[in-house]
Specification:
By secondary structure, the protein is of the alpha+beta class. 26% of the residues lie in helices and 28% in strands.
């Protein structure tokens, strides 16, 4: 009897003898990726046709020449995983990961959007056409990202800023 064992468990739950699963808390593992976390935005931008350039080369072009980043502020010319710096406007970030075809930053305390926002910049190529995908997420909303007006302004600003980055990489990818 396949459902027979479930009946005593259900009765024990109702009687308070067993406890059910705990209410899910916000994840602390949001550094690893957006799955199960509070998503903020995801945008894709064409970088044009670069049939002889790999996604790795485009990522390296940006992380080795970080002044190409439109809000690089006080960050070094070459960024490394674990590095901390201030983006334009005094917004501190940490470089969380640099992979073969992506890099990811995390906002730190003092950032205008709050701490704990992860932003991943991923590069891909299909039939010679390169794409930049920018995705942002958090473990839980901040005062800004949890409020509709501020979150909308953040999304619009991010879309425009990452569009400038895509336009810059459209041309600098030829040097990669």
């Amino acid at each position: 009897m396949p459902g027979f064992a479930a009946v005593p468990v259900a009765l024990a739950l109702c009687a308070g003898l067993l406890t059910g699963p705990a209410v899910a808390e916000p994840r602390n593992e949001c550094r690893a990726g957006p799955w199960g976390c509070y998503g903020l935005y995801a945008y894709g931008y064409s970088l044009g046709l670069h049939p002889f350039t790999s996604p790795h080369a485009v990522r390296a072009q940006l992380t080795d020449h970080f002044w190409l980043f439109p809000v690089s502020g006080g960050c070094a010319g070459r960024i490394r995983a674990g590095a901390r710096c201030e983006l334009l406007g005094g917004n501190p970030v940490e470089v969380e990961y640099i992979g073969n075809d992506f890099f990811q930053i995390n906002t730190l305390p003092g950032h205008q959007l709050g701490r704990g926002m992860h932003i991943r910049f991923a590069f891909s190529r299909t039939l010679g056409f390169h794409t930049l995908t920018v995705r942002a997420w958090q473990d839980r909303p901040t005062d800004c990202t949890g409020e509709a007006f501020c979150n909308t302004v953040n999304r619009v600003f991010a879309w425009g800023t990452w569009r400038v980055l895509a336009q810059t990489l459209r041309f600098s990818a030829y040097a990669a």
